[in-house]
Amino acid sequence: MIASVVARPTAGPSSPADEYIPLRLNDRERALLCVLEGALSVSEYTDRVDSVMAWRGARTGRAVEELQEMLAYMTGLAVAASLKVSHEPCLEANADVFREAFEVGRRFKGMNPDKMRASYGKLIYMLQDATAPDVIRELGFDPLSRVQTVHAELALLSCLDLLEEPELPLAASPAHSAEAADAKAAATARLLARFADGDAERAVRLERCLLSLADHACLVEAHVSPVDAMLRLLRTHFSPASTSVGPGGAASASLQITAGRGGARLSHSHASQYAYVEQSLLL
């Protein structure tokens, strides 16, 4: 249920959703994200490759040329950002950097659906073409890698048991007051003390996982709470099948629409429109 997701941000290790919660970006990855976004902003990949003229010609060759140009942009921006990259003229020498940057972009979009609105589509078109065998052969490497997740990071740390901890929902939940923030910080400290074993680096990685779970919970809450509110209003003020009496016993307004009136393009009875609105909110 929608409400239960918000109430408990992590559903436990038995939930498939746990394996897909993205890991929060660190400082290096944020620098790589800037490199990627900068290169995407100047790349004309979709204009030159996904056009009618490109389809009529040698599209694979055009895709390789544009990808090589994109990677060259990224190399220059990475050098300007003082990131550690190879200065060899061969693009394959920086394959790991490119692969990491593309993964960071995909992960960042998953955590921030409202970001990269203009450039993410270009990135996906680019990566789809880059996975073609002919393109991989020309580039010399496969630019795709799996998106880093909290589950994968905890597995590397041998700490998957953390997902079963009773205090995890508190440590990974949104804090809406000073008291809640204090309780959350205390729960986080207890979990880190229990699982970090006094290792500072391990504690940093575990804290990053907890922060990532909290980010996910905030994202879900921000998107689900308005929908829950609309569902409550719909079910409180309107009756599913009748326009005479609502669930609370009060008179219920009609949701009926007629084509040509009030901008409506279709004609729906009250019951049909109620079902349509409710189903749309439950998607």
UniProtKB/TrEMBL annotation:
<dbReference type="Pfam" id="PF09418">
    <property type="entry name" value="DUF2009"/>
</dbReference>
<dbReference type="InterPro" id="IPR057668">
    <property type="entry name" value="E2_Ub-conjug_enz_C"/>
</dbReference>
<feature type="domain" description="Non-canonical E2 ubiquitin-conjugating enzyme C-terminal">
    <location>
        <begin position="19"/>
        <end position="283"/>
    </location>
</feature>
<protein>
    <recommendedName>
        <fullName>Non-canonical E2 ubiquitin-conjugating enzyme C-terminal domain-containing protein</fullName>
    </recommendedName>
</protein>
<dbReference type="InterPro" id="IPR018553">
    <property type="entry name" value="E2_Ub-conjug_enz"/>
</dbReference>
